[in-house]
Design a protein that fits this description.
two-stranded parallel sheet; alpha/beta; seven-stranded parallel beta sheet; 322 residues; Rossmann fold
């Protein structure tokens, strides 16, 4: 089988490339930065294209001979991007990819969205029927991207599946590594009471969910949350990391309002420099937005069963860190 992976140079995308190559598939991938794929750059079944999915003239060539598309590329955490940039990448490029894939007679289009499209969760855990109330430009444009994909599916009957991963962690994830380092050095700062829920899913389980979505005969046109075995509070998460590291858990708690003020001020100061601030209004979502999902639909229709518990996943992540 021949697959196209957009965003294959990212944390999740690079692991998906590894998995697809391990299964003997021919992989073509495109990303702005492909450094995370240097370990497989010489693989005989890997084609790497350094470029952007917003280069619409390139898309027909990318799609030649492709059976399955995993669409992971997106504008995500970059606070230096404009709203128009997010619209171009997360909406317009998705629309173009769908059309080109349809014209190329591809067999399945797996669109990687985000749990963030739900926005504020009032009664966790939620399932796929939850009303979406996105709160920032990333979440809003990813939700519009979903709507584009679903409308295209209804119009053409093209087999599109939408995956909403929860908080994915594991080796090669800079955010996971940063969290572990700050806990290890006792530099982690808790903004707020630490009671906000997080729902981690280890990278191999997230990849499993995507690959099942590409194969299942029940998945055409559906949306699925992909999450791990359990959700827990941030406080419990940080204590678990400290246990795995065999260090004392951090104790510094600061008012949430102070974090919001710092995020706004740093974002304002760093934006003219074209740099990402250490704290932003987006990153404060970690402390404020519940992140807990019911994955019964994915279990039932995809056969998705998360296999890595949090302690094991953290140990694997730590073992892979330099």
């Amino acid at each position: 089988m021949r697959v196209l992976i957009t965003g294959g140079g990212g944390f999740i995308g690079s692991h998906l490339v590894d998995s697809q190559l391990a299964q003997g598939n021919h992989v073509r991938t495109i990303d702005l930065n492909l450094d995370r794929l240097l370990h497989v750059a010489s693989h005989s079944k890997l084609e790497m294209v350094q470029g952007s999915i917003t280069d619409f003239d390139l898309l027909p060539e990318l799609m030649q001979g492709i059976d399955v598309i995993y669409h992971l590329a997106s504008a995500h955490l970059d606070v230096t991007l404009s709203d128009a940039d997010y619209e171009l990448v997360n909406v317009q490029a998705t629309k173009q990819l769908l059309q080109v894939a349809f014209e190329a007679d591809a067999q399945r289009f797996v669109h990687c969205s985000t749990n963030g499209v739900v926005g504020e969760i009032n009664d966790p855990p939620v399932d796929e029927t939850a009303v979406c109330r996105p709160t920032n430009v990333y979440e809003r444009t990813k939700l519009v991207g979903e709507e584009v994909a679903l409308r295209f599916r209804e119009k053409t009957r093209f087999p599109v599946v939408i995956i909403r991963p929860s908080w994915v962690y594991g080796p090669r994830c800079p955010r996971t590594a940063k969290l572990i380092r700050t806990v290890r050095k006792r530099q982690f700062i808790m903004f707020g009471d630490g009671k906000t829920l997080r729902h981690p899913v280890y990278i191999s389980d997230a990849i499993k969910g995507m690959e099942l979505a590409a194969k299942s005969s029940l998945a055409g046109g559906a949306i699925y949350f992909i999450a791990g075995q359990q959700y827990l509070t941030i406080d419990e998460l940080v204590h678990m990391i400290a246990e795995v590291l065999n260090v004392q858990p951090p104790f510094l708690h600061l008012p949430l309002m102070l974090g919001k003020m710092a995020g706004y001020s740093l974002e304002t100061a760093f934006k003219p420099l074209g740099r990402r601030p250490p704290i932003s209004q987006r990153s404060l979502d970690f402390y404020t937005k519940d992140n807990a999902y019911n994955i019964d639909k994915a279990r039932r229709e995809l056969g998705f069963i998360p296999g890595i518990d949090l302690r094991n996943g953290l140990q694997k992540t730590l073992a892979a860190m330099p």
